[in-house]
Amino acid sequence: MSKQSAMTRRHTLAAVGAAGAGLLTGLGATRRAGAAAAIRQGYQTNIWGMPTYYLVKSGYLQKHGLSVEEFAVPSGNITMQQMVAGRVDLGTYAGPSFIIGNVKGGLVAIAVIENVGKTARITARKDLNIGKVEELRGRRIANLVGSSVGNDFDDIVMPHYGLHKGDFQEIRMNVTDMVAALTAKTVDAMVNVEPYNVIAVANGVGADVMDFDKFDPMPVFMAATAEMVEKRPDAIVAYLKAWLDAANDFKTNRKKVDDVIYSFYASKGYTMSPATFTAALSRVEVNPGFPDLKAYMQQQAEILVANKTVGTIPDWSKALRPEFMEKAKAGR
Known about the structure:
By secondary structure, the protein is of the alpha/beta class. It has 15 helices and 11 strands.
């Protein structure tokens, strides 16, 4: 990128402010006034949220009788908080954030959209020549504490390598600010998701240390509020039919998908090359469905309970609801 390798603070604050106010400044809300089947869709502006961004821009929601209002934020845990507060109907995030949202606000998983374990990475400053996780002892590490990636880093990845809180200096930071911090040498490494890792590497300031896939494939759930599940089940099924249409484009019309998502980052001031962008998006495995993840989610919940992040384990029969996706697939 020409100036900064990450979204500027102005962009970040604008995105957060827009989400908090329920506005879509610069993102072109597409909600039709008076539409009976309008939905409020949250998504994160990192690569995890880009399949949802594509869905919103694809026209498939309108094809299935839905209009949409967008709520874009830097990280999925913010979408989760908006949903708990009742400001957003639907949003994606990984298992730990979903569990927190279920415990605090009764959120319900209606689908698994993608796996993103390959997008979550530790990237160190290139000039430090750090090649192993163990070499991060005593280092300053940028991490969005409380996010799903942040929780995996603290609770699973670092303990595996014999490192625990206190063995390194953890600096809480939004993902959109981390590449700039690497460039300025105010941190030694970052725990981040795409496209920020490939941007840092392409710009010559970062070097990959590892990705999280072998520890956690990171299935990303599409969650809905309990109110939407109770009062608008037909809208959920129509919504998931739109997702299945969009997923087909990821398999058969990839150039269309790439062009739409690349245009999002270009509109935010990024100048990454198409090759860099393609590398980032290739690490997202888009395949909407609802595999049996009870054992995986139980393990994630036990970690959160042990660390006192939540006080109880969800009732999976109420939290994980595959029947909506089953109905969407049956109607095709």
